[in-house]
Predict the 3D structure of the following.
Amino acid sequence: MSGQPVLRRAVPADAAALARLRYAFRSTLDSAVESEHDFSARAECWLDARLRTSAWMAWVADAPGAGIVGQCYLQAIEKIPNPVGEAEWIGYITNVFVKPEWRGRGIASGLVDLALDHCTAHGAYSVILWPTGESRSLYARNGFAAPERLMELPCSTTMHASPKT
């Protein structure tokens, strides 16, 4: 393994590497229903398009000689405008993943810190996420707690479901 990775904002050119990391992360949590090749092609297009907007951001850990070894995504969810002094967007952190051989170096914490710094600097109302059992301690160290104001109703687990307008 090379030295400590550089943490930086992801760019559209990172989409292929990010798609592979997404597959590596999610396919360890459940059985994959599509091949890595098919998923990566689909995800690369999606990621490339999203990284060109301000609604989705990502930060990566880029290790010299090893490439991208970690990632963290942030979606800016707009709130409806309101006339009171309340922030009008919510941060949604997702897909924080560091390759197993790179864990224990503070990379995930550093990536989450960058996403939280962005939320603070740009006045987010709050930041939400859905942790895995393994990641709960990471988020607790960053100030996350079980919500008192948020409710959830799980709906569909349908493959590739997307919102209809």
